[in-house]
Amino acid sequence: MAITSKMLAARGRRQAQKLGIDPDRVPPGQYITEKFPVLTVGGNPAFDLAAWDLRVDGEVERALTLSWDELMALPQAEVTVDIHCVTRWSKLDTAWRGVRVRDLLERAGVKPAGTHLMVHSDGGYTTNVPLDAVMEDEVLVAHTYAGEPLEPDHGAPLRLLVPKRYFWKSAKFLRRLEVMSGDRMGFWELNGYHNDADPWQEQRHWF
Questions:
Q1: pTM of structure
Q2: Rounded Cα gap, residues 151 and 157, in angstroms
Q3: Nearest to 79 by CA among 99, 50, 105, 104
Q4: Residue 171 to residues 10, 21, 113, 141, 160: CA-CA distances in angstroms?
Q5: What is the rounded distance in angstroms from the CA atom of residue 107 to the CA atom of residue 110?
Q6: What is the pLDDT of residue 11?
Q7: Pick the residue with more confidence: 182 or 1?
Q8: Which of 29, 44, 52, 132 could be bridged to 152 by S-S, CB 3.0 to 4.6 A?
Q9: What are 55-66's pLDDT values in tens digits?
């Protein structure tokens, strides 16, 4: 029997109920996993923390270039959130530590024209996110997962965490946050993935 979209939409809810988890935590079409699957465009780029930096620039009053030590000296936040991948897995209660994106943008001073971020990674990967989507408490530039420094497969030394969007928006190997005065699509968005990526609306693809 062919698996229909309706059957997929109900799969995660049934699984959650069996596990004693509130099924409303699982977006339609997702299933719960205890693993942390690895999906990366290209290989894991090498990095040297002594030479590494993070830039915040574009439509800002004060462009920032932060060394690793400077980033670590900023106020740190810890969040526990559910994450959802477009390939249909969801992982619940994931624990992260990092710096709130909101705090970085406030330090840089977003100009009135700023509306979106283009997120740039080592290796050339990009993804775009509206500024409104990164101002919430749980949106981090994250360096720690489950109490340990990020592993290379999960984006070391730093990745973006935007838990209310499909996980391709949470770019690995983060190096630059570019504030833009309009929207511009990133890598997967240009290759057919939905520009907004809301798991609760199943915004997986444009078509």
A1: 0.90
A2: 8
A3: 99
A4: 28, 28, 24, 10, 5
A5: 9
A6: 75
A7: 182
A8: 44
A9: 999 999 999 999
